[in-house]
Design goal:
Blueprint: H1 9-13, H2 16-19, E1 50-61, E2 69-80, E3 86-87, E4 97-101, E5 105-113, E6 120-123, E7 144-150, E8 156-162, H3 168-173, E9 178-183, H4 185-188, E10 198-208, E11 214-215, H5 220-225, E12 231-234, E13 241-245, E14 248-255, E15 262-266, E16 272-277, E17 280-288, E18 291-293, E19 298-304, E20 313-318, H6 328-333, E21 344-353, E22 383-390, E23 393-396, E24 411-412, E25 416-424, H7 437-454, E26 476-480, E27 486-492, H8 496-500, E28 514-517, E29 521-529, E30 534-540, H9 543-548, E31 551-556
Parallel strand pairs: 1-5, 4-9, 10-14, 13-21, 22-25, 24-31
Antiparallel strand pairs: 1-2, 3-4, 5-7, 6-8, 8-9, 10-11, 10-12, 14-19, 15-18, 15-20, 16-17, 16-19, 20-21, 22-23, 25-29, 26-28, 26-30, 27-29, 30-31
This protein binds CU-O-CU linkage and copper (II) ion (2 copies).
Length: 557
């Protein structure tokens, strides 16, 4: 394979010459590698404030009683930088928690000790394309990819995970995920609960066999709706309980599940005090009865345990909802342990210590510069993200993922701010900006494979009621790489009762990189595309959907 000098214009823009080095077939899911970017090397001119190794490897974790579970995990090693830049997560498969400050220069040496290719993405961070973990940059076993970037994001909780072509879901499932916390001066000045009073929580669902090994259903059901496990793990542990003092805490929650959406609420129905979301602090705290948290979304909660007696317990539940998957047959298939939309516990806080801390949450938390109308380049002509979900077709804008398939509306001038409209498209064939095109034809041919798998399913999911193309509606968490965006409008048409059970759980006032688009919803966002040219992905963060092709890329040029 031809190597390119790091950061050369040619590599950055992936010109036609680079594309020609791999045949087009690789993009369509025959399991081929699609590498087009050579492993980046450390640059001599980059002087990092933080320098660390991150190794993807096979390991074992004690999750259930009895024998250990074979997992894949990130192991870390700090080479240079403040000691809190890397905190290992003992006794779990989670990767180390990385803690950076805005403005720091960070070097991460990602080494692949897995039996297959991989690449890591820094979810929510605004970095150049070569540092973004593009699937085309996947490294083979034994190789190292060196990331070097400056932290440009404001304070917030971000995370890292593989972004390997068609293998993201399984690699994450086996344990590859870790949190990133970014701090800045604006946030430090607030004196929010920190140290042991700041608790990052990663919620995931998993299934195990009788030997305590992870089970991943690679069946039709999983590829259509995503993976749903029958057990909740928090920070890689079951029945997660944390001992707290009766004082304020900061809980920083990431939904690290492949597909499952949670409706966070306390068991005693104490309202939630939300102080932040994906892209950091809100301007002011918001009080909500519950918060919807879709895969990849984060929520920052201030929980005040003062006034609760010793021994008191407070359990975070996932509350009841329905309608995020419309076909009743889909819902029927989810029955069993942890049925989608049924109530179940996530984790428990137990008050075990007294505290006299009287800290009060400040009224103003941060300043978010609202994007003004005049700044938006395409007010009358939003960029569409049309979601199509069907038996043989997981599309955005009528086309499956393909690396060299940029359509006119996916070309974005650098340093502009764009209006983007995300909606469900059930109109069938030929809609969307690309029309049917080659991409769709290829996907339908590839559909033979999925039909084959469907044969193995027991009853339930016939084609009836969904039509030939099997269009159906479910909620999709849509994620855009690059800078955080602002949600400016949601409109809804559909089952009002279903919507009433979720609508108060959307926190749209902060900066976001992932937005849940419920069935019947149309969401408008404004997003800047500053600083970096190149290809940046946008996709559904239901990881099975992402791997099935519900992903596209913008070419920022
Ligand atoms: Cu967290 Cu492109 O993903
Ligand atoms: Cu991302
Ligand atoms: Cu989806």
């Amino acid at each position: 394979m031809k190597r390119f000098a790091p950061m050369s214009r040619r590599t950055l823009l992936l010109g036609a010459g680079a594309a020609a080095t791999v045949g087009a077939a690789g993009a369509y899911g025959q399991g081929h590698a699609m590498r087009r970017i050579a492993p980046n090397r450390a640059s001599e001119t980059f002087n990092p404030d933080v320098d660390l190794d991150l190794i993807c490897k096979r390991d074992e974790a004690r999750i259930l009683n009895g024998g250990p579970t074979r997992v894949w995990r990130y192991a870390g090693n700090l080479i240079k930088g403040p000691s809190n830049a890397l905190t290992p997560a003992p006794d779990t498969y989670l990767g180390p928690l990385l803690r950076f400050s805005k403005g720091q220069k960070v070097r991460i040496r990602l080494r692949n000790e897995l039996p297959e290719e991989t690449i890591t993405h820094w979810h929510g961070l605004h970095v150049p394309m070569l540092m973004d973990g593009h699937p085309a940059a996947a490294i083979h076993p034994g190789e190292t990819y060196v990331y070097e970037f400056e932290i440009r994001n404001r304070a917030g909780m971000y995370f890292y995970h593989p972004h390997t072509h068609e293998k993201t879901a399984t690699q994450v499932y086996h344990g590859l995920v870790g949190g990133i916390i970014i701090e800045d001066d604006e946030e430090r000045a607030l004196g929010l609960p920190s140290g042991e009073f700041e608790i990052p929580l990663v919620i995931q669902d998993r299934s195990f066999d009788d030997d305590n090994q992870l089970v991943y259903g690679g069946d039709m059901h999983t590829s259509m709706f995503g993976f749903y496990g029958d057990r909740v793990l928090v920070n890689g542990r079951r029945d997660f309980t944390v001992d707290v003092a009766n004082r304020p805490y900061r809980l920083r929650i990431l939904n690290g599940s492949n597909a499952r959406i949670y409706k966070l609420c306390w068991d005693d129905r104490t309202p939630l005090t939300v102080i932040g979301v994906d892209g950091g602090l809100l301007e002011k705290a918001e009080t909500r009865p519950y918060v919807m948290l879709a895969p990849a979304e984060r929520v920052d909660l201030l929980v005040d345990f003062s006034g609760r007696p010793q021994g008191a317990k407070l359990t975070m539940m996932s509350g009841e909802f329905y309608g995020l998957m419309i076909p009743p047959m889909a819902q029927r298939m989810m029955r069993g342990d942890l049925a989608v939309g049924e109530e179940f516990p996530l984790f428990t806080a137990r008050v075990t210590q007294a505290s006299s801390d009287l800290w009060k949450l400040p009224e103003k938390l941060s300043t978010i510069r609202r994007i003004r109308r005049e700044e938006v380049a395409n007010l009358d002509d939003p960029i569409p993200i049309a979601i199509t979900m069907a038996h043989m077709a997981m599309f955005l804008n009528g086309r499956p993922y393909d690396h060299d398939d940029i359509q006119q509306k996916e070309r974005i001038p650098v340093d502009t701010t764009q209006l983007i409209e995300i909606f469900h498209e059930h109109g069938g064939m030929g809609m969307g900006m690309g029309g049917m095109g080659m991409g769709r034809m290829e996907m339908m041919r590839g559909g033979g494979m999925m039909r084959g798998r469907m044969g193995g399913m027991r009853g339930g999911m016939g084609m009836s009621g969904m039509g030939m193309m099997g269009m159906m509606s479910m909620a999709h968490p849509i994620h855009l790489h690059g800078q955080q965006f602002q949600i400016i409008e949601r409109s809804f048409e559909g089952d009002e009762d279903a919507y009433a059970a979720i609508r108060d759980g959307f926190i749209d006032t902060g900066l976001k990189d992932t937005v849940l688009v419920a069935p019947g919803e149309r969401v408008r966002i404004v997003k800047p595309f500053s600083d970096f040219k190149g290809r940046f992905m946008y996709h559904c963060h239901n990881l099975e959907h992402e791997d099935a092709g519900m992903m596209r890329e913008f070419s920022v040029e």
